[in-house]
Amino acid sequence: MMLSSEALYERLAELPIERRRAIAEAGRQLAEREGLDSPEIPFAFHHLPIALDRERVSAALRSCGAVVQGLIRLERRALGADGGEIRDRLLASLDPPGRRLFELCNFESDYSVERRFRRVDAMIEPGGAGGRVLEVNQAAPAFIHFHDALQRIASEQLGMIGFDHEPDLLAPRVAAWLVGEYRHRYGTGAAPETIAVVSEEGYLYKRLELPAFTAACERAARDRLGCDTAFRLCFPHELSLRDGRVWLGDRRIDMIWRNSALLDSYAGREQEIEDYRRILARHDEHLIVNSTRVWLTLTKDALSLLSSGPVLVQLGFTPDERSQLLDAVPRTVSLAREPDVADEILRSREEWISKPAAGSFSQGFEAGWWHTDASWLALVRERSSREFVFQRFVRRSPGDLCEIDSAGELHRRTVTYEFSPHHVDGAFPGTVLVRARVDGAKGGRIVPVIVV
Question: What pLDDT band is residue 181 in, cutting at 50, 70 and 90?
């Protein structure tokens, strides 16, 4: 039987309730084995995966890829000899910690910029028209072990009801990316002996998922690449500089995968991360991937540039490239740069949202339909500075989800979801996660996707 959402529901409906109860219990046990049983994690292991049509996913990934390439072009232009105006604009939209992080970095190879780890947050357009990209997280994307764990759970549960699903996991791709970066940098066929995966203290999702993901990368390097590379998870204050080399205790570090961002949380402890700051500032001497240089195009004002036809012409994008980007990026505006758009935003407030250019975790998010005309006017005036953007609202994609409760009863849930593929080593893997809202419930849930 061909796998689809409808076929999945029909197969589950045919099963005795005891069998469905066993599938739900297997999901619970698998989630516990994968470390997903923490109440801090927004998962529901009794949800079967969402099945998405391959053509729709391919169209959406083409849109996501166009935006990733657009950001790469924008970054290179901003840091080139004639990019001062764009660079100054992007820097001005960052908050002070973001500017400080950008200013730490003095080098990153084109090879690394193309391949650095990213997560794209988008919506799939109805009818297979493509995707609409809301933002690209290039700093330290979360949900990487969660992606692989949920794909493995989905594969096992689907196998229990007669469907074959071979997941495309992120850990092997990350291992190949990191080994490839090392070989490209040093012109060698050898592999790094030790890679430091540097996270910061206090980041919930990193604390929950990086230990397992780091171990998975080490296994993948050994089993798939034949590389005896050690992956060591650590914090910034644990790294030191001795004799011009990076050390973690008594182990010499050959390269760093930077997953740290919130260095301001170390305020008052600067001496403890002084060496780490020196390491980050010397990318020409130390191999660091996902450098702090990413902050330049992490700002959402970068999307203001990529959704403006005149700016795309100025930046040298071809007509086809401009068409792709204008279709993929909802109109995003910095009123400090385009004050004339304020009248349109005020007239059609239900079609616009606003957020800090340098924000994350939905902090500072405002939707026009939450407001009266008077309060929206006040917000627009307040957010006419360079630190905020306004963006045309894009509705979440609709779908449905099969759910088995603890008694084995089968339910079909209406969901809306955000499409969040990871971009690894210059490409998208074949599987993604979605962040879904079920039946209008508050809060989102992370759900695996299978492409059919």
Answer: very high
Does this model's pTM top 0.85? My answer is: yes
Q: Angle at CA 57, nearest 5°, toward 52 and 60? A: 140
> In angstroms, rounded to a whole number, what is the distance separating the alpha carbons of residues 150 and 169?
10
Query: Does 107 lie in the same domain as 195?
Result: yes
Residue 87: pLDDT above 90?
A: yes
Reference 92, options 282, 331, 288, 336; nearest CA is 336
Phi, psi of 245 (to 5 degrees): -115, 155
In a domain, 254, yes or no: yes
Q: What is the largest CA-CA distance in the chain?
A: 68
Q: How many domains are there within the chain?
A: 2
Q: What's the CA gap between 141 and 432, in Å, rounded?
A: 13
Concatenated DSSP letters of 240-298:
EEETTEEEETTEEESEEEE----GGGGTT-GGGGHHHHHHHT-TTTS-EES-GGGHHHH
Q: What is the CATH number of the domain that holds 386?
A: 3.30.1490
Name the amino acid, one letter, at 437: R
Residue 108 and residue 283 in contact, taking contact as beta carbons nearer than 8 Å: yes
Tokens describing residue 127: 């009818």
pLDDT of 373-413, one tens digit each? 999 999 999 999 889 999 999 988 888 888 888 889 998 88
